[in-house]
Amino acid sequence: MAAVSYVASVVCRKAAVVRTTCKGISTAAQPHIDFLKGEVHRKHPGVSKLKTLRLPETLQTHACQILHKAQVARLTDRANLLKNFLWSRKRAFENVTLQKKAMSLEKELRERAIKKGYGLDEQLLEEQIRKKVLFELRRTTYRWTPLKYDEELGLVYMAARLAGCYAAVRRAVNEIKKRDPLFAPQTLLDFGSGLGTVVWAAHSCWSESLKEMVCVDSSGPMNILAEKLLKGIEERGEPCIKQVYFRQFLPVSPKVQFDLVTAAFTLSELPGVKDHAPSSCSGWCKTKLCNIVCETLSSSSPDILFPFQHNMPQTEKFSYLILTRKEPTDVDTEGVSWSRLVAPVQRRARHVHCRLCSPDGHLQHIVLTAKKHGRDVYRCARSSDWGDRVPIIPKDDSDIQTDSE
């Protein structure tokens, strides 16, 4: 999970994290380990956060021109409604889950009827139970509905989510550039490309190496809108980023692979897990070097609308996964365990609370102090933010114990 600040984005709720507690780890007997590599604490090697992001000037100009020309009715209200809908959207219930829930309700109702001793006909009782089960399922089951992005809804989506999507993808892309400076993709495939924010974010990092970018989205109107964002409102205008191609379907041949494959805010648009797996597998099969999956965390949304004429930074909270087929260049130093912050650092007087994901995949809750963990480790943790990595120098495994939330 990560967070990134950008102009006119959304503010999200905190995500709960199951934790383990790590007792104080004394480093008095530990030799000095130079994990800072000459950097000051606030710029230690594990920092990957970006400053407050803004949309590229050309992208913002083109988006403003498109919205002004379109004159969408009630754009502000509709954009806010769409943001609220997307942020509060839940997964669709799987059939297996619904069946288990129905069986549990049926059992509960039957036991209740037997306990009360109703002398009902067996067939009539079954009919009543069936009606009550269906009523409860309809009342309590979330109704997942797909969104069909036509021309007008695409414009509303652009007003609501352009900046947030760009900021999140830019943050994930920056992580790759930070961890593997030598990575220079020549080809890119963006599955579920939407407004084309991945193209803009990738171009900002690898403009010199990228030679071909293929955007795939099932919505034809959304592809047209993404292309307009590259060209502007002039019909014969030249795209400001070259070699970008739009498709409605993935390349069929398994031999067609790309250095970088992305799926940003795409899986949440699919009905259920049975649809996620084929899409994820297809993306991985198309991956030659690196694969990025980025999705939204639950959130609430303020009344902020594009175009962004003010300087009010907001926070986009999202989760992302980066998979690679090669061993990336790393900043790890021997003797240091670099753990990922999965929640904001809670800074207190002379100590900080860090919720971390360790390299072995375990979640930890560590209270760091300068006395117990060393000044450098403590200052680095205090200067870090959600999504960064912090250095931990453990003494031995006996210092870690499991604790309940």
**How many strand units?**
14
Separation of the first and last Cα atoms: 19 Å
- Give the helix tally: 10
Write down the domain tally. Answer: 3
Unreliable parts? 8-31, 298-311, 396-405
- CATH 2nd-level architecture of the largest domain: 3-Layer(aba) Sandwich
Helix-strand pattern? EEHHHHHEHEHEEHEEEEEEHHEE
Give the strand order, joined by hyphens, for the main sheet: 1-8-7-6-3-4-5
Q: Mind describing the biggest β-sheet?
A: 7 strands, mixed
Q: Indicate the proportion of strand residues.
A: 15-25%
* CATH domain fold name of the largest domain: Rossmann fold
Roughly what percent helix? 25-40%
CATH superfamily of the largest domain: Vaccinia Virus protein VP39
Q: Please give the radius of gyration in angstroms.
A: 25 Å
Shape: globular
